[in-house]
Amino acid sequence: MSETIRLAVVGATNLIGEAVLDLLAERQLPIGRVFALDIADKEGETVSFGNLELEVGAVGEFDFANVSLAIFVGGADMTRQYVPEARQAGCAIIDFSSTYRLSDDVPLFVPGVNEAVLDDLGEGLLVAVPNCTVSPLAQALAALKASGLQRVSVATYQSVSGSGRAALEELANQTTALFGARDVELEVYPKRISFNVLPLVGAVDEDGVSEEERSIEHELRKVLALPALEVEASCVRVPVFFGHGWAVSVKTGDELTPAKARELFQAAGLQVVDDPAGDMPYVTPLESSGNEAVWVSRVRRQGQVLSFWLAADNARTGAALPCVAATVALMKRGYFA
Hints:
By secondary structure, the chain is α/β, with parallel strands linked by helices. The chain contains eight helices and 14 strands. A hairpin with a 2-residue loop joins strand 3 and strand 4. The longest helix has 19 residues.
């Protein structure tokens, strides 16, 4: 991994773009130059890359022949518009959007779960990264896979940062307004988010299942290579700035004791904090914010069902970290040599 590469981050000014740049800088990868790109309205703004300040360029004016790799975190519209152009220029792509996640010819990558999908990709490679609600959950479930996963039921508790910077401002403004006895304004969400929970994330289909819930269902099956896995998801938006929570119940073919499950989680690299008699018997989304860990707590069993609680930073661990891990894995495989 000694060869230096030139790299572009597309969507560099949003929360995930900033997290990607932070993680890339922290890892001190052999990157010769980083280009920060975004929509034309963001041109001229600056973003941080370690100790450097990068000026943001307009993605529509960028020549992707100037970079070996582009990490797209600007959303599905930007991906659909510019990824074909970038690939035509010979640029490798890591994409964090829904556009290619379920395409049969595009690997859907989660670090520590399915590393082999990055082998033998050839030129003009395209790698998709799952929804930020999927990657931490997939890491936990992969630890239990050998026990015969049969059914997964999950309720997500998703912070407003998953909706972008405007949602952070809306939660802050509504909270201030309520303490000041003023009317709240609704812009990002259809109902008040402060001191409330919204049991719907994304549009619903004819069966009443939301886009977020469908993404968990389909993406989990693909990442875990378990097409027949039963998955039930309920996604809830909560008045938290950063950090998601997952309440998970799984049915396995083999009977798993909580003690054995904790061992499997730890062996897979997850952080287990689960001492009911201790000072901190569980980890909250707040405590997971700002670090890269997937935290497991409240592991317990009732009958045939093993249940547990997950917490992770949605922007850093759920979204940015898989993109950066894919970058590292591709470099180690010599795709840019």
